[in-house]
Fold this protein.
Amino acid sequence: MAVAGRAEELRRRGIDVVDWSAGEPDFSSPSTAVAAAISALEQGHTRYTQNTGILELRTAIADDLASRYGAPWSAKQVIVTVGAKAALFELALALVSEGDEVILPSPHWVTLPAQIALAGGEVVEVVAPLAAGFRISAEHVIERMSARTRAVLLNSPSNPTGAVVAKADLRRIVEECAGRGVYLIADETYERFVYDGMAFPSAAALAGEFPETVILVGSFSKTHAMTGWRLGYLLGPETVVRAVAKIQSHATSNATTFAMWGAVAVFDDAEQRVVEMLDEYQARRDLLLEGLNAIAGVECPVPEGAFYAFPKVSSLYRDGCNGSTAFAELLLEKGRVAVVPGAAFGADEHVRISFACASERLREGVERLRAVLG
Ligand SMILES: Cc1ncc(COP(=O)(O)O)c(C=O)c1O
């Protein structure tokens, strides 16, 4: 937040800052969704709906996951939430009690451990090693399970590393969870952002076999460039969905009504848009990675998914610039490039760079980094 605040201050003074800190797509929301939301407003869809969201959207979400992954969920096992963030928070409140443990790979998105702690749970971190491209192994996760484990929370593709949990590891973890009566929570917010032609191994594909174990959280934010609409969703066992719905009824009530009507229209042309978007992101990723890895002292595995690179930069730390926050400040002050310190994700040797920005800004940023660090 400190770096973002300083970047904003510089911009207000008319200084050109290359912003690599954004956690959101630079694309516009789908015009079909915008038109449907406007029409919903005009038609008077401006009142409360059922707490869990309009049936049309819950059905569309369930059908989409059934067609792409063979997922078994029906509309009554879907709850539409105020972003995936609310889904994850409500889920933590529903499942986690004082003393429960939740296993979470690290580096991790900053919000995940905070939500678990707010629910009274304890986070058990499993380090995803840089040498393995930040991929976690099932054995490392299983090793950390105890009688207090309530859930394993996997964010794949990962924010901030871009790592994807391999299909075999995912299956092994789900099997182990099922055997122990532990939930597997899959935060698949970046599900559609996978590169090099990868078929994404979604936990949704295992839900038919392990219906009491798998809980899926997803979002309209990144895939459809709809961050401001605040629409996410959760699917899972009916008991879990009912518990989450009770909490939602006291927290937010339904997600915004006309936004939900807009989102129903997203599915009309989603596949074509996702393909176009992915081509663009793949080109950006390749451009950024080539530039970063050509800078001496920067070590960055190629992210398999999401839209972040998470280079190790600690060999460039110096006296007076020790740690990712000081390093991010240096890049901003001297290079006019905004990145997010890795400390925010539990990895102080790294910084996070978002490639959700135009290629020319990626080129310009790499040039500026070279000038500061070269
Ligand atoms: C890993 C991860 N999960 C969930 C979210 C929440 O997304 P939203 O609340 O916009 O749906 C984010 C947003 O940055 C994220 O990075």
Remarks:
- The chain has a mean pLDDT of 96.
